[in-house]
Amino acid sequence: MNLRIGAFGRQESAAMVLIAAFFGGCFGMDSCVLHEHGNASWIVQIIATVQALLLFEGTVWVLRVRGGNDLSALIGKSRFKKTLAAPLILALALAAMQPLEQFLFTMTQYVFTDSKQVTACLYLLPSLFLLTALGAETLVRTARILLPIMLLSIIAALLSGIGQYHLYRIHPIPLRDPFGIFSLAGAAQVRAAAPLIALLCIGEGTQDRMAMRSAGRIGAIAGGLLATASLFALSMTFTYTQLQDMPSPFYRMLVEVRAENPTLRLDRAVLFLWLGGAILTAAFYLYAASVLFAKTFGVRDVRPVALCLSGIAITLILVLYYNSETTAMILKMLYRYAWVLISVPFPLILLKPKRRKPCAASY
Amino acid sequence: MRRILLILLCCMFFCGCMQSKNIDEYAYVLNVGVERGTTMPYLVTALISVPGGTEDTKVENRVVTAEARSFSEAYETLNAMYPSRLSFARASLLAIGEDLCADGAQTGFFDFALGKPDLWPNLRTVVVKPPVRDVFEGLISEADPSLRKIKTAAGDLSDESGLTADTGYSTYTEAIGDKRFDAMLAYAGVNEYGLTPDLVGGEAYPYVGGSLLVESTLKTSIAGSAVFDGDRMVGILDGRHTMEVLMVTGAFRKGEMHYTLPDGGTLRAALYRMRAPKIRLKNGEATVRLYLKADVIEPETVLMERNALKAYLANRLETELSAVLAALQSVNSDAMGFGRFRAAQFRSASGWEACNWKAEYKTLRVTFSVTLMLSYGVKGV
Question: For chain A, how many structural domains are there in total?
């Protein structure tokens, strides 16, 4: 089988999970939805990260009990469980689409203002195809190389906006609306859990279950904290009413600096670095979804699946721009309720398979 | 096969070259202004930097105008009438005419929220006494063709003297869209058009909006501030009153005050913020504690005893702050931003949205308390 998983260490996989957790957390969701109950995105991110970690720890525990290195070991050969893999693949594909969609929007609205989305998509497609086709080892090792500069760019972006931070903007903190917060945390669960699910899909490459567990923990906690800090900074830069009307709030945060600020025009450089991170994240999810598909349904080569999934994801993003409002609305609903795609099948996959009684010999 | 695929892949990366434009085709807009038009609702003025001016500067500044119904329309019109393609990427000053602000008509004009054209979202925003063209022309100087120095100086004026508000467009729109505070923008005008009356009144102060009483090679001055009630401009504060509002908002760093003492003498004091103001808001009453340091300049001219002077200065500041607040309350402008503290008392967005803060603000009772540290002998700010 040509699954192109390869072999890599804890640092590489932790770096990949961290990058994916950050980009999923900060660039995953519709800002209008995320701030509909107030400036609570950072609270939502904390809850979603905890939920995702619990799910991951539970899965690793089940893997340890039953023996196995990745998610496909839990799915096994049961037809029922194979069917349950489909929503997970869809959830990963949706998690890949969200940051790409936001970056595509940012590029066409703020950078290449005269370009159309199709033209900008041509930038994304080759790199996405290439990364998903090259496989897990390439992805995680690229993540390890990119991580320091990515962290530097995030810290620089957060520091450059420090003059614009005001604590009054986070008010009112919607503590009297726990239902609203938890419904948003549910929606954010896909974004927080996707890096860990993707890691579970390629667990075989981490060489050891314990290495996978610690990589997942480190990556998810560090990425979650970084995303929470960034969302908190965002909440101090804009009020929730402003954020509701802001399609690319993080890019807006970058350009909030005043003309005298030495970090002026840092935005484009940081944007393209982050675009690289978003492409890497999307490729990671799409590749993991392809591996899950290939292992579950017995496809021998992962590359055609990965190319197909990448093509479908980009096409769906374009559909959001060019098609009717109804199509866009359906996709947005899918984004919001994608947590069902994880919450329902995952516990069922973790269930212990029924052992068939051996047939009594009849002569 | 692989080579062909590689060539095809490379072709996709060159899509940015399609419809590309040479950098020399652009002319850069440095300032944008909008005021009431005659045939259309808005008259847009742009100060453009054109490469290839005089031999010394290599840059020439031109002011162009166009009437339009919205910013996008003005952008298209200006681009059509100007030989080069206009880029707004370097614009760092947005001037809004006082005539538009008086009835809030400026809010319908700005339809560039999505980054088209490429206008910096947090550019410095000022209110100007029309015509905007005269104000822009008054800023042009051969010594500073890019206007960079004058714009930096405007920011420094706020930081170093507190005589004007330095507000970005984002803060201005935040104030309009949210009821937590009202906008306070720097006020600019052409010197020869004379004084503009201040909202508070009282002791005359040399710096009055639109008329800086100093000799300058530039005809335009930026001083004082225009205060708003939502999207409507309701008055002007002179430099001194602007400084006092900034003390409460927390934006004040340092500034110089002049006082006439009870014994007839004059006091010059450099004021510094020691720490951030503390504001408490409860049951329609607010207490504001300010922590300032005052350095008496030319102490030999002051005959008052130290403690008496300290008490006099603190009391004087408290009285003036109360007068400024009363003036702001009379025009329903929460430029001091008490709404920020009212919003913090809510635990849900819907509760805050249902709150009629402006009605509460009208009857808000505020006690100012100034803690002053006095020292002698500094040369000034």
Answer: 1
